[in-house]
Design goal:
5-stranded mixed β-barrel, globular, 19 helices, 21 strands, single chain, alpha/beta, 16% strand, S-adenosyl-L-methionine, 606 residues
Length: 606
C-alpha cells in the first residue's frame, strides 16, 4: 500500500497541505478503503464499497470528533511526548480520551522498537483490539522502522514525523479506511495542542534521530538521521510552558549530546539559552535527557557549568552499554570505556552532588567472560545509583542480528549476576537527617505518598495533600531505601508576588558560569554548590520580604475593591452612564411603538 500524500485542490502536490494540527479536506488525502482484494476491480468500486459501509455505520461514528479514543504508549519519554501531542490534537477536534480500552471507539497505539518485549506487547494489544473489533491506528517507531511487518496488515499507521496528521488518520480509520502515512517531512511543530500526562512536566523533544550507527539499534531505522529544532523555537516553547504552570522541563531526544550539529549549534548553546528563561525562584527545574559519551566529551566543562545552575537537576543519563572496548567496537559505539570514565570523573569532580545513571547490555554477540568481567568491574568502581540492565535482543534488520549469539542461558546468567551486584549497592546511605530542597510533581503509585526529587534527582517520598503538587519544599530525610528515600516536609516555598517578581526580572539572570556570578543576583558560592537552606539566587530575599509583600498586596486589593464598589446613587453617575440609560429607554419606547403600530394594522385588516 502506498503512503497517503498531500494534494493541492488544483491537483498539484508537494508544496501545499494544511497547517500543522489541522485536518485536510477529504479530497486532499489519498486513501485506500478496506475491501476484499478479490472484489477490487477498480478504484471506483473501492469508493462505492467504502460509501456503502459508511451508510451502515452508527450515527455517532459518522460525525467526526464525537468518538472516544484510547491511547497506549510504549517506550521512551520522546514517545510519551509524541502521544501527548497526538492527544492534544484529538481533543482539540472534539474527541474524548479514555484509559479504559473497552470504552473506546478507536485504539491509538504508540509503539517502541528498542527491545523485543515491547514489540511483543504491541502485537498482543493489536490482537486484542482486532478480537474486540476496534479500529486501530499504530504510531511510533515500529511502523516507521518495519513498515512491512505482518502485524501491521489491515490497520492504519502514522509515522514518527507525521504526528501532526493524526486527526486525519483517526477520522479515515473510523470510516473503515486503512490509511498509511510514513513519509518523512519536516519536524512536527512544537506549538501543537498537547495534553500532558502530568500537568507539571513538559517533555520537550529537542531533536529527532541521531548521528550514531550502533549495530544493535533499530531506533535509527525509525527516527532517522539527526534533525534538530532551532534554539529560538525551543526557547519560545520553554517560555510558553513556564507560563502554563509547568514545574519540570525534560529535554528529550535519541541523543541529547548530538543536538544542533546539523544546524551549526551545539548542546551548551541551547542549554545556556534555556536556563536564562527559568524563573529565579527555582520554581521550574530543567532535566537534561540521555546523552551518549562521544558528543559531550568536547563540552564537559560547559555542560558541568549548566548542571551547577540552581534551576538544573544535577543528574545525567549516560549509557555505557559495556565495560569492554572490544564489545563497544562490535557495537560501533564510537568511544572507549576509558572515555566513558572520563565523562563520569569530570562531571563528578566539577558538579557537587552529581548523579549519573547508565545502561548495560548483557550477552552482546561475541561477549566473552573477560569482557563481562570488565563490565562488572566498571559498575563496581562507580556504584551508580541507577543502572538499566537488559539482555541482548536481536532486532530484525540490524547488523548485530546476524552476529553469532551468546548462548541464552549464559546471557541470563550474566544479567542475574550484574543485577545482584547492582542491587547490593546502598547509594543513599548517610542521607538520614539531612535537609534537602525537593520539587514535588506527582503522586506515588501507592496512592499515599507524593513524589519529589532533590537537585540530584533523588526520589523523595513525602506525605501531604495533593495541593502540594507543583510546589517546592524543604524536606528532612527520615529513612532511606534502595530505590528512593523517605522524608517529611518542614517548609514550603511560596512563589514571589508579581511586584517582587517584576522587580527581580530587572536584574541580570543567574549565570550558569560560576566565574560570572559576581554580576548576577547570587554569589559564586551559591552558584557553585546547592546550599542546604535553599537561600540562594535571591530566594532568601523573597522569603524574608514575604510579610511586607503580603501587607502591600492587601492594601492593593483594598484599593481595587474600593474602585470596583458599585455606585450607590444616580447623583454619582457620570455623563456616559446617564447617556447609556437614556439610550436604553429610547430604544425600548421605539420598540414598543413599533409593536403597537404593527398590531393595529393587523387588527384593521381583520
Amino acid at each position: 500500500m502506498e503512503d497517503i500524500e498531500d494534494l493541492l485542490a488544483g491537483g498539484a502536490g508537494g508544496a501545499g497541505g494544511a497547517p500543522p494540527g489541522f485536518r485536510l479536506p477529504l479530497n486532499a488525502v489519498r486513501i485506500n478503503p478496506k475491501t476484499n482484494k478479490s472484489k477490487r476491480s477498480s478504484s471506483k468500486q473501492d469508493e462505492i464499497t467504502a460509501s456503502n459501509r459508511d451508510s451502515l455505520a452508527p450515527p455517532s461514528l459518522k460525525i467526526p470528533g464525537t468518538q472516544t479514543i484510547y491511547i497506549k504508549t510504549f517506550g521512551c519519554s520522546h514517545n510519551q511526548s509524541d502521544s501527548e501531542y497526538m492527544a492534544g490534537q484529538l481533543t482539540a477536534f472534539g474527541y474524548a480520551l479514555t484509559e479504559v480500552p473497552e470504552d473506546a471507539d478507536l485504539w491509538l497505539i504508540n509503539t517502541c522498537t528498542v527491545k523485543s518485549p515491547s514489540q511483543s506487547a504491541m502485537s498482543t494489544l493489536i490482537t486484542r483490539g482486532r478480537s474486540g473489533k476496534k479500529p486501530l491506528v499504530i504510531a511510533g517507531c515500529v511502523p516507521q522502522g518495519s513498515r512491512d511487518l505482518k502485524e501491521l496488515e489491515g490497520v492504519s499507521v502514522v509515522g514518527v514525523q507525521q504526528i501532526d496528521r493524526v486527526v486525519e488518520i483517526v477520522e479515515e480509520t473510523l470510516k473503515g479506511h486503512e490509511v498509511r502515512l510514513l513519509t518523512r517531512k519536516t519536524l512536527p511543530a512544537l506549538d501543537l495542542p498537547k495534553v500532558r500526562r502530568n500537568n507539571f512536566i513538559e517533555i520537550l523533544p529537542i531533536n529527532v534521530g541521531c548521528l550514531g550507527a550502533c549495530t544493535y539499534c533499530k531506533t535509527k531505522h525509525a527516527r532517522g538521521h539527526l534533525g534538530s529544532y532551532t534554539v529560538d523555537s525551543l526557547v519560545e516553547r520553554v517560555r510558553t510552558v513556564i507560563s502554563e504552570g509547568v514545574k519540570e522541563i525534560w529535554l528529550s531526544s535519541e541523543d541529547t549530546g548530538a543536538y544542533g550539529r546539523d544546524i551549526g549549534v551545539n548542546l551548551p548553546i541551547l542549554l545556556n539559552a534555556i536556563v536564562k528563561e527559568l524563573p529565579s525562584d527555582q520554581s521550574t527545574m530543567l532535566r537534561i535527557g540521555m546523552t551518549n559519551p562521544p558528543f559531550i566529551l568536547e563540552h564537559l566543562k560547559e555542560i558541568a557549568a549548566v548542571l551547577r545552575h540552581l534551576c538544573v537537576y544535577t543528574f545525567l543519563h549516560v549509557p555505557v552499554q559495556s565495560g569492554s572496548d572490544s564489545v563497544l567496537t562490535a557495537m560501533n559505539r564510537e568511544y572507549t570505556a576509558s572515555e566513558f570514565r572520563t565523562v563520569v570523573d569530570t562531571l563528578t569532580e566539577l558538579v557537587p552532588g552529581m548523579q549519573i545513571a547508565t545502561d548495560i547490555i548483557c550477552g552482546f554477540p561475541g561477549e566473552t567472560d573477560e569482557d563481562f568481567s570488565q563490565t562488572v568491574e566498571l559498575i563496581k568502581d562507580y556504584k551508580f545509583p541507577q543502572v538499566h540492565i537488559s539482555q541482548f535482543y536481536p532486532r530484525p534488520g540490524t547488523p548485530a542480528a546476524k552476529m553469532k549469539k551468546v548462548q541464552s542461558k549464559i546471557v541470563k546468567q550474566r544479567s542475574r549476576e550484574l543485577t545482584s551486584v547492582f542491587e547490593a549497592f546502598a547509594p543513599y546511605t548517610g542521607m538520614e537527617g539531612k535537609e534537602e530542597r525537593i520539587w514535588i510533581t506527582e503522586v506515588a503509585t501507592d496512592g499515599i505518598h507524593l513524589v519529589g526529587h532533590t537537585k540530584g534527582y533523588i526520589q523523595v517520598l513525602v506525605t501531604g495533600p495533593e495541593s502540594m503538587l507543583g510546589t517546592s519544599a524543604m524536606a528532612r530525610i527520615t529513612s532511606v531505601g534502595r530505590w528512593s528515600v523517605f522524608g517529611e516536609v518542614i517548609e514550603t516555598f511560596s512563589s514571589v508576588n508579581r511586584e517582587t517578581q517584576a522587580r527581580d526580572e530587572t536584574k541580570p539572570p543567574c549565570s550558569s558560569d560560576v566565574s560570572s556570578c559576581e554580576t548576577c543576583d547570587c554569589s559564586a558560592e551559591s552558584c557553585g554548590e546547592k546550599e542546604r537552606s535553599g537561600e540562594t539566587c535571591n530566594i532568601s530575599g523573597n522569603i524574608s520580604r514575604q510579610d511586607q509583600n503580603m501587607s502591600d498586596l492587601k492594601k492593593e486589593e483594598k484599593e481595587m475593591m474600593q474602585k470596583l464598589k458599585p455606585r450607590s446613587s444616580v447623583a454619582n453617575w457620570g455623563l456616559i452612564d446617564k447617556a447609556l440609560v437614556c439610550g436604553v429607554l429610547v430604544s425600548s419606547l421605539t420598540i414598543l411603538v413599533l409593536f403597537i403600530s404593527i398590531a393595529s394594522r393587523v387588527l384593521l385588516r381583520q
